[in-house]
Write a structure and sequence with these properties.
The protein is an alpha/beta fold and 362 residues long. It is built from 17 helices and four strands. Helices cover 64% and strands 6% of the residues. α1 packs across α3, α1 packs across α5 and α14 crosses α15. The structure holds cobalamin (B12).
Length: 362
Amino acid sequence: MSLMIVDVDDQIRHWSQVIFDRQMERQPQLQYAYDTRRKRRMMEDIQYNLELLRTAVQLDDPRIFEDHAQWIADLLIHRMQDLGEDAVRGQLVMHYEIMQEAAVEFLEADEAGMARKVLDRAVQITKAGNSAMAEESQRHAVPQAELKEQYLEKLLASDHRGAAKLIENALDGGTPLSDIYMHVFAAAMADVGWLWQRGQITVDKEHYCTAATQNIMAQLYPRIFALPRVGRTILACTVGNELHEMGIRMLCDVFEVYGWDSIYLGASLPPDAITASVSEHCPDLVALSVTMPHYLPLGRDVLKALQTDCDLSRTKVAVGGRAFQLAPELPQQWGADVTADNAVDLVRWADKVFGISRPGRE
Ligand code: B12
């Protein structure tokens, strides 16, 4: 397993090396059990754990690391089945204990105290053996579940054309475009993530499903652009090196379905490019998206930059994305105008705030 987190700074790099060396010292059997590739991945995982710990401490919010501890245990148990669940849990527990020692050595007293608290919870969670069953139980409880399953099946069979045809037929048969986005594309992508996490599909399949869905979304634009317009504009992007831009792109497309014009900036924008674009376009609504929890502090900073550098007298700002599921009150604390769990909920909010009426539509 590799998490390939790209934002590793010198402090995290140094700290990771110390933790890695200590764990190898205390569990010398890992020297033999792990080949070079697994050792490299272990180092990357340590770096990712530290990023997440830093985020939880910075935001003073232990839930961020709790969720991560559960997720990484689940991921590693499925990726390292040759070692067995107990051994993987044992290695993680030792890892968190070593992180606790390092926290005392490397952090200021108040931060170290918080880090220890967070890591105590991680140890408990890892020992308790909770798994991410909640997400699994949601898998089949959605509208359009059958269509979503058929779509996923086509994608997993690498049948891009078949998947596209399925969507065309559903639309021709009257399935609303917003249902296709929310209950087919988004739900299928969540399942793809779940299958990857559980080691049931490889990363190439995950990438194929992503690319195919992006292509199929692009084929829908002629239908979407033909819909009536409401004269409002949304500008949207992700923050930092967050590569998960498909969710915010879906959000823009859903706004287009409801008649908004969208200025979709994608991923990897420096904060001043976002503020410059908002100043240039003066959109009615800005939407910032964060998926990976360690970009939450940057999300907060970008929001602050918008609030200080841009004239927002005619612009509302929304922040959202998967990372906020862990801490749903953050957007309000940061002074965002709104957050929402999904694109359609945000459209409903925007309809009210901007006084848009849609006779004959939900
Ligand atoms: C596709 C995908 C990728 C693609 C992204 C491609 C792209 N162009 O977007 C790639 C391959 C790049 C990728 C990389 C990684 N990924 Co990934 N990825 C996914 C996957 C399978 C689907 C994402 C998606 O599009 N979902 C569908 C959309 C519609 O959902 P959404 O983003 O949540 O958006 C909806 C809402 O959140 C909301 N929303 C979104 N933004 C906003 C903004 C506002 C203002 C509002 C109001 C609402 C809102 O509206 C959207 C529509 O309703 C998810 C699984 C999942 N459950 O989502 C994993 C997932 C997010 N990835 C994960 C991981 C771990 C990674 C990597 C670290 C893995 C790796 N080894 O490379 C890297 C990190 C890259 C990085 N630095 O950012 C994990 C995250 C786990 C965690 N603890 O947070 C997940 C959950 C997979 C899993 N189950 O383990 N990934």
